[in-house]
Design a protein that fits this description.
By secondary structure, this protein is α/β, with parallel strands linked by helices. The chain has helices spanning 10-14, 37-49, 59-78, 93-104, 126-129, 152-158, 181-190, 210-213, 237-241, 267-284, 291-318, 347-356, 369-374, 394-404; strands at 25-26, 85-90, 113-117, 137-141, 163-169, 194-198, 217-221, 231-236, 322-325, 337-342, 359-360, 362-364, 383-387. Bound molecules: pyridoxal-5'-phosphate.
């Protein structure tokens, strides 16, 4: 980890997020993060001063067109997609994965196989199952029912020369484990399949690098990465080329991303996305927005996060009545999303103890319904999930533990 600029301390970081001055402890960040003042202000200013339609030759409209274009460019750089592919923005990641699967319905043929990870969030599971209507055969990349792990061997068992798509989550939003995405992609490409990676639970914690991983499709949600409620989907140029996007017939097939943005994007959200570059520059201590800025910013985030996951994982592991759901260690191969269950008490009853003290944590299946079922957990009660990001304080974890200890 090499940080080239001067990294800000935690107080300076937290001062960027107006919501963090409240008493609530925000430990539900895997559900959604807070936004910086810069993001909120940019969206407000856009709505207040420049809320006109794109594509006309008058000054304000040209300004708005540039903002929307800039948002796409910024996200593409954020994912390291420059020169390799394009980025589609949309309402949410769920919406974008569903849109993508619907596009694949036109090219999937009877007998084609689609590998779907059982550990995935339903956003990148359900849409692919719908392709059974086109005659596709679903092959499940199963989890180990004890650990929840998805192994490469497990993947290789279900790949074949008929596999067209491998859909999986880069990080499970429940387990917190980082999958070796480069290895998954290599295995999928070896049989000629495309990978569709759900990066939603990865993106708030580490720098995305779609080119290093050689992925075909990669999605994440900006609202979990300190930005507005928008989903982003990167696709390689050659992957886009084989699909017809859903936008109107008179929009040319090759007009990417617009062909894939039916009804357009939320323009004010684009202003928020563009403002996020200031925060990444602030974290990295650099005065330009480039790849180095993104990777440095995430190095700073990871450094702040590590002690949080270490403390939480250690607390759960040492507790005689709690069972950690996910990797039983802290470290670089997991994010600070920590889930657990109690040997006798429901996840709901444990979670509520913290919620009553204004601590935002959550219980349930977190939309990884199939993963919970495979691990023998009753999905509606699921797990207790504590999810931190870099702006959380070690003292917040201590407070959570102090509140939960007597209850568990
Ligand atoms: C791993 C993962 N994938 C997909 C999603 C869905 O994202 P969105 O809310 O943008 O549809 C979530 C949301 O929690 C998630 O955690």
């Amino acid at each position: 980890m090499t940080i080239t600029g001067t990294a800000p301390d935690l107080d300076a970081i937290r001062a960027q997020f107006p919501a963090l001055t409240q008493d609530t402890l925000f430990l539900e960040n895997a559900g959604g993060s807070q936004v910086t003042a810069g993001v909120a202000d940019a969206m407000h200013a856009y709505l207040r001063d420049t809320y006109v339609q794109l594509g006309a030759p008058y000054a304000l409209s040209r300004h708005c067109t540039r903002i929307v274009q800039q948002a796409h460019d910024d996200v593409r750089l954020f994912m390291n997609g420059d020169g390799a592919g394009e980025v589609v923005l949309g309402h949410s990641s769920s919406w974008l994965f569903r849109m993508l699967a619907d596009c694949y319905a036109d090219v999937i043929e009877p007998g084609d196989e689609i590998v779907v990870a059982e550990a995935g969030h339903e956003a990148n599971v359900g849409p692919w199952l719908r392709l059974e209507r086109q005659g596709a055969k679903i092959r499940w990349w199963r989890v180990d029912p004890e650990t929840g792990a998805s192994t490469l061997d497990g993947l290789r068992e279900v790949l074949s020369e008929r596999t067209k798509i491998v859909a999986f989550a880069h990080v499970s939003n429940l387990l917190g484990e980082i999958i070796d995405i480069g290895a998954v992609t290599q295995a999928a490409h070896a049989v000629g399949a495309r990978v569709v990676a759900d990066g939603v639970a990865y993106a708030p914690h580490r720098a995305i690098d779609v080119q290093a991983w050689e992925v075909d499709w990669y999605g994440y949600s900006a609202y979990k990465v300190y930005g507005p409620h928008v989903g982003a989907l990167y696709g390689r140029h050659d992957a886009f080329a084989e699909l017809e996007g859903p936008n109107h017939f008179f929009v040319p097939k090759g007009e990417v991303p617009y062909k894939f943005e039916l009804g357009g994007v939320a323009h004010e959200a684009c202003a928020g996305i563009v403002a996020l570059r200031d925060y990444l520059q602030f974290l990295s201590g650099r005065d330009v927005y480039d790849r180095q800025t993104v990777t440095d910013a995430f190095d700073v985030m990871e450094a702040h996060e590590r002690p949080l996951q270490e403390r939480l994982v250690a607390w759960v592991l040492e507790h005689p009545r709690l069972r950690l759901i996910g990797p039983e260690h802290a470290g670089a191969d997991r994010v600070a999303t920590v889930s657990f269950v109690h040997e006798t008490k429901s996840s709901q009853s444990v979670s509520i103890v913290a919620n009553r003290q204004d601590i935002g944590i959550r219980f349930g299946h977190m939309y990884a319904h199939r993963l919970c079922a495979a691990m023998g957990l009753e999905p509606d009660d699921g797990v207790v999930r504590v999810s931190c990001v870099h702006y959380n304080r070690p003292a917040e974890i201590e407070r959570l533990i102090e509140v939960l200890d007597p209850a568990v």
